[in-house]
Amino acid sequence: MVKLGEIYERINAGWLPPYQVAAILFPSFTLLTNGGVPLFLTFLTSTKGWQCLTDRCNISLPLCDQNLGPNDWYVPLSQATDTFLKKYGVACGYDSFITIINSSYFFGFMIGILFGGKAMDKIGRKKFLVGGLFAYSFSVLLHAGGDFMVFGIAHTFVGMTSGFVAAIFVYQSELTVTRFRNFGSQFHNEMFSVGILYGALLTYLIEDFFTICLCLIVPCIVFTVCTLVWLTESPFWLHQRGRREELQETLQQIARFNGVKYTTDEKIAPPVSTESVSVMQIFHYNKETRNAMCILLVSWLFASFTFWGLSFNVGDLIGNLYINQLLICVLDLLNRLINYYGVKYMKRVTFLRVCNVGLVIFSLICMIPYEKEIFPGFNIMKISALACRMIADLYFSTVYLYTSEFLPTVVRASGLALCSSTARIGSILGPFIVLVNKISPNITFSAIMFLSCFCWMTFRAMPETHGRLLPEDVPDVARLIAGGDIMGEVNGLEMDRVRLLSDLDEATEEERVE
What we know:
By secondary structure, the chain is mainly α. It contains 24 helices and 4 strands. The strands form 2 sheets. The protein has a two-stranded antiparallel sheet. A two-stranded antiparallel ribbon has the order 3-4. Helix 4 packs antiparallel against helix 7. The longest helix is centred in the N-terminal third of the chain and has 29 residues, at about 95-125.
């Protein structure tokens, strides 16, 4: 009997299998909406964001007379005619109120991912993903109606449905073969940055907020339909649920998509169990699996806190907020290239530990009291903070990829949901960094240094997942941690060693058994 992972690698062999292209592009392009909108809306709810947008609508922003600080703003409703600001009923804005609005998204995300992960494991990756994408598109449109309170509620609902569409990464990691999984992960993450730029560009060109929201959801709708029509359910999920006939049909459909012949002569090794498994079994299996999961949870919390906390300070780097978004998009593109080659040649665990060292170094530099500008608008602290943000992005992307390869198929979605819910604690705290910085920026960077050192020390005990098939059950994970080779290694780049299933028609019985 042959493992499903080996068969799936064979039917997706070749230089660039069409199904692999579709599996990477279609789900990732939906993130022009699903990745960009939350960050774009956060960009709008910053003080500069509102000012930048209302400047396009030729609305002045006089300060009110009630002892507001220099960073506060006031918009009389009488002066908000013919703009979306009147719909929101904006009166006065405070940093603390903006922070709560931003945190509402992450609170909704935590709820959505917590319930969505278990549902994803039960009803299937594709069904849950497609439903979540359509619900997400509807929630984006809710921002364009009602008052500012409705905006906050809609922001929470966007976060909740974002938790549902987190199935994208689980679904994509199971559809992509070993040699494309790293590239697929980087392309997936880059769409977040392009989505921010897309939203900022729409804001610059269009003044009506409902039209902006309508344009934002177009990529999501179009590529959700493409996913629904051309992509299949995850073969690994079908295998784990014991749906043999559907699995065979799915493999044949993928083989036809790639232009190769699939034969059912080989028997697929059955899953260890088709019963429902809880992610808590990883904690209860043995001491090593429990420690590994705890390390992953802390790493997710640290990555989210660092990335989002530093991201909320992007608007203060230079004067023009649109240029900021372009700058961040370009830097994130550079990040994806660094991430791709770093993970490829350093492998997962080593690259994560290198990122920890980088965060410690630049956090120390950020605490140096040197205010002289090196470039216009940039002193050494701002440059180092931007470098920290880039490294945190690298760390976050890699730990996401690593977790999807570490968790077994039986609990991959619910396990990622648990990790992502833990990360939401960090992202909920992230916006408050803006307020903490008014006391002392050293508090933030001291926390980042401490967590970086902790993750660097603990991650040395984690196993490497590079070049290995996805684990199918909890015992596979335990053997992976113990250094066992039962999962096998895949020489994804040595394609001459991967045999197409069409070649099996001419193989002898002895070769097939082998």
